[in-house]
Amino acid sequence: MNQINTKDYMNQWYEIDPELLEMEKIAMAKAFSHFTLDKLDDGRLYWIGEITPGIYETKFDEKLTYVVMAVYESNKAVRIYPVLPDCEDLMRMIGGKLWFIRDDAGNLCLKLDQCKEQRLSATDYLNAAIKWLQKYEMMLCGFTQPLTGCLSGI
After folding, report:
1. Which DSSP category does 61 fall into?
2. Would you list the domain boundaries of the chain?
3. 14 with 22: CB under 8 angstroms?
4. What is the largest CA-CA distance in the chain?
5. Which DSSP letter does residue 111 get?
6. What distance in Å separates the CA atoms of residue 68 and residue 126, rounded to the nearest whole number?
7. Whose CA is closest to 46, among 118, 131, 103, 114?
């Protein structure tokens, strides 16, 4: 993953509000206990773990698992980056770029941009990513429902 200019991330939200970070850790421990917290070189925190939606498995008897990173921006917004398979691989599987956006460093991430306007927990973004991946797997199974929206529309 390309790094973002570190001067933009001098005062991280978790340094300004350590209690909020503790609440994030508690929420993640309850909802996504298999995810681990780490820090990028530029100071941003991220959670990494696996998501297995199960839609594809019901049709083809083959489980698809996705490794994703939930990366906090300096304002606590979260971007979801598929790691394995990455966005390029996901695009190849469905033949389109409509459901991805680029961050400030040019990295592709899931298009959950409606979430940016809200102050949500990483659990909210990961739940939106699960819904995104469920719809993605539905498309792999032949359903044609479009992948749009964030928390209310996905």
Report:
1. S
2. 6-140
3. no
4. 48
5. -
6. 9
7. 103
94-126 per-position pLDDT tens digit: 776 667 888 888 998 988 755 555 668 899 999
Chain segment 1-29, per-residue pLDDT in tens: 665 554 555 688 899 999 999 999 999 99
DSSP string, 72-101: EPTTS-EEEEEEETBHHHHHHHHT--TTEE
For 78, other C-beta atoms within 10 Å of its C-beta total: 26
Structure tokens at 66: 């996705």
Provide, for the chain, the percentages of residues in helix, strand and coil under a 3-state DSSP scheme, each rounded to the nearest 5: 40, 20, 40
118: tokens are 């809200």
Contact 125, 118 (CB under 8 A): no
Strands 36-39 and 78-84: unpaired
Beta strand extents in 34-142 (DSSP E only) = 36-39, 45-51, 66-72, 78-84, 100-102, 108-110
CATH 3.30.1450 for domain 6-140: no
Please answer whether residues 4 and 105 qualify as being in contact, where contact means their C-beta atoms are separated by less than 8 angstroms.
yes
